Amino acid sequence: MSLHDISGLYNSKMVLIAAKEEILQDWVAEEECASILQRHEIDQELFIAHYAGNVFDYFMGVVSGQMVIGECPVIADLIEYLKNKDLRADELFTLCTHFKRAVLNSTYRMGINSPEIFTAVSYLFDRNFAGVLKLYTDTIYQKEQEAINASKAKEYFLSNMSHEIRTPLNAILGFVSLLRDETINPRYQKYLDIISNSGENLLHIINDILDFSKLRSGEFAIDPQPFNIHDEISHTMELFVPSANSKSITLTSFIDPSIPYEIIADAVRIKQIVGNFLSNAIKFSHPEGAIHVEARYDRGLLSLSVRDDGIGISSADQQRIFDAFSQAYEGVIRINEGTGLGLSICKQLAQHMGGTIELQSALGEGSLFTLSIPVVVNHECEIAKFDISMFEGIRFGLLEYDPSESYKLESLQRYWDHFGLDVCRIKTVKDECDLLIFLESSIDDETREYIIEQQIPSVAILDFLDDRYDTIETITPLTFPIYCTKLQNALSEVLGINQPSLPTALGINSGYGFSGRILVAEDNHANQELIRIVLERYGLEYVIASNGVEALELYCSQPFDLILMDEQMPYMNGNEATLSILAYEEKNKKPHTPIVALTANVIKGARERSIQNGYDAFLGKPIVLKEIEQIFDRYLSPKPIQKNEQKPKQKSKWPAIDMEHLKSALMLDEEQIDYLLGIYCQKMEHSLRELENAIAEKAYEDIPFIAHSIKGSSANFRFDELSRLAYVIEESALNKDKEFDFDEAYSVLHSEFSKRFMGEEGYYSSK
What we know:
Globin-like; Heat Shock Protein 90; 5-stranded parallel sheet; about 15% strand
């Protein structure tokens, strides 16, 4: 691009220079920029005076032809200053990006905006700051690499120890499981149960030791990411329902509906702590007891508590229960073995997140564990306003129940009170109401038969899910634990109401999409289809390439506004294709088209290395619509789109899949998810056969590529265990780990896939 090409900007430079102070103030005052500066204790005025002002002067100098691109005198000092402030590369990128936006916004306000000016500013910004970002990421990467090399010996030891113990243990547990299915002798079944439980305890011990070792060595990292606390806590509770049911324990909950829909914290570690609380509560609760989970939020502080009515802990033991290798249940028979590390690890995790764990307990009265951590609200998302307008004017009747079971309905009553639902207590099923709610354990057979015969629209609250109401259309079962989405779905189902989507910041829900033409480079067919559906919902045009060579050819022959580039593809990978595109642009003096890395490699440092490899932005798999919309918002122009009418709900083809979770995560309707799951299954069957053959033939050069494809597509559908197993196989092959049992790993991977999509139930068959 020549000076002639930026003549519009050149002609407007005096207007921009006159507005310098206003532009700089807008720049640093923008919410994201201000947050970054505040977080790293950088004074705004100092930043403007010594650095931001000089950057602006240099930018205008380039426009005037007085300075050369890439030779900003202040850059070296700025990089050194920000590096000493521990600024991350993505934070620097954010600062730079908002400088560009501040300049463009000023042109809009002054009425001098045009496509030519937008192109000129984008070109100058990209060319000026590409070198800056590369230099910065180089220094950070070098620093991180030194730390990684220093801890390699410890990591190698931990990894080997984990593998050496887990491999035979997994085999033991696997064969025990097979024997349990084939053995009918009650005495032998008992023996096998003891072996299985002991093996599971040993596996937990190994996990605890590894986590504890990492925490002690300083290798443990907290990874804050945006997540939906409502979904994550409810999913965590569901994992413990079977073990609670085995002891006839009722698991109740109250997740405050006013908690922000999306917060930023380490969801994995939060779930780990809550899971530990729940596991202990179930272990040390009496049969037919009760456990209550509660989530609250107040002014930046998230509180998660688990209360049980079990054996409790004495005051003396409470002083040492969080010490490593301690178990504090004096005077009680130890019915569960373990390391005594679980609560110690939880305490350290909480401290790493800047939080605390509190304990209230008394012997014989139960315990209350509370995790409190500071979190950041993602203001780009709205508060989770669970829409109850659909239930306005509906009279709910709660049938009288056994007073001894009132605790089961306490949290339900809190939800009703929060939403202001009209719920009346009724004595008989003949009392007038629009929807009947009853506690299954509190009604007799005669009452149940009357409800069925009269076809009274009802919600039956069950302790445990069974099939008694599967064929009765007028009754919807609702099992513990009960939370907002579960309650809302049950009420909607029995009333035949189509639910609106939960509020988000996404343009597709607000009636706005984006204008632009997208080049998608992705070799996985299931991922192609997912991206295609997403792009169509935003009203975007697109062309899909299946490898890097095809992507390069398309780019050279057609205009595009944005490129989504998968890093791992056949013939030419994403990094190679990106470098080729950049070289083509440079050679032909072509304006730069933003390139976004699309990858399943989301480990620490991946974002920085993507920028270093020439990408403009980074999108990890699984694909998160909020993140991809942020990319569209950064590089494309908004436009109004026509929303598709919501189709009537149909019964899912995938009984083993949590469709509600997928619909919420992917923001797609059930028909679209059904279609994508079919493609995913076909691809997985093919990939699994390829992987099996590669392992059998010891073709270790092919295994990482196949496993990476499985990892990415599984992650997109939130099949975390499948993705994790594929990752382990990929890394073991890349590291040429001769001790790793690839056959066993493949067997576990195939088994996990089969649980969801194959077997007697016929969840899926491509035959």
